[in-house]
Amino acid sequence: MDNKPLKEQFNNFNNIKENHVKEIITNHTKKIRTGCSLEITDSSGNQPLKFSNKILPEKLNILVTSEYTFLSILLYINQHYRILITIFILYFLKGIFSILKVNLTFDNNIIRFTKLIGLLIILIEVLGLVLSFIIGRYYDLISINSETNYNNAFNLSLNPTLEFNFSMFIVGLSLLVVSILLNKGNELQTENELTI
Question: I need a surface site. Which of 34, 52, 156, 164 has the fewest CB within 10 A?
C-alpha cells in the first residue's frame, strides 16, 4: 500500500474496490484495538457508495480484534453484565410480589429484597462507569476526515464515552432509603405487637 495522502487516495473513490477501501481504513486506523462497526455512505449520508459498478450495502462492518486478552474479557463482561443483573432483579421482584400476595405486613424478606434490588441497580451503573472508563483507556481518539470535496468522501470518528445513567443511580439510592424505612416500620410493628 502506498503512503499517498487520503486526498489522493479518495479522488477516484468510485473506482476503488471494496478490499482496497478496507485496506485504506485498516492502515489509517491501526490504533483501534477493539471491535467497531463502520458505516460508509456518500457525503449526503443517503446513498451507499459504489465500487466498480458494484453497490455495497449501506453498512460495511470491519471487525478489528483485540490483541489484549484482558480487554477482550472486559468487552465480553460489558456486553452481558446488565442482562445477568436484570435477571437477579426480576427474581427479587418476584419474591417481593409473592410475599405481598400472601401477607401485606413489613416482612424481613421484603426489606432484604428491596435493599438488594437497590444495590443491584447501583451496581449496574457503577460497573458500567468503571468498565467504560477502563475500555476507553484502550481507545485513542480516532478521526479521519476526507480532505476532498468529492461527492463520495467519508468521515470516520471513534470517541470513547463514559456510560452512567444518573437517574437509575438515584432510583437505586431511593430503593435503599425505602428499605431503611421498611426496616424502621418493621421495628415499630414488632414493638407494637409486643406492647399489645
Answer: 52
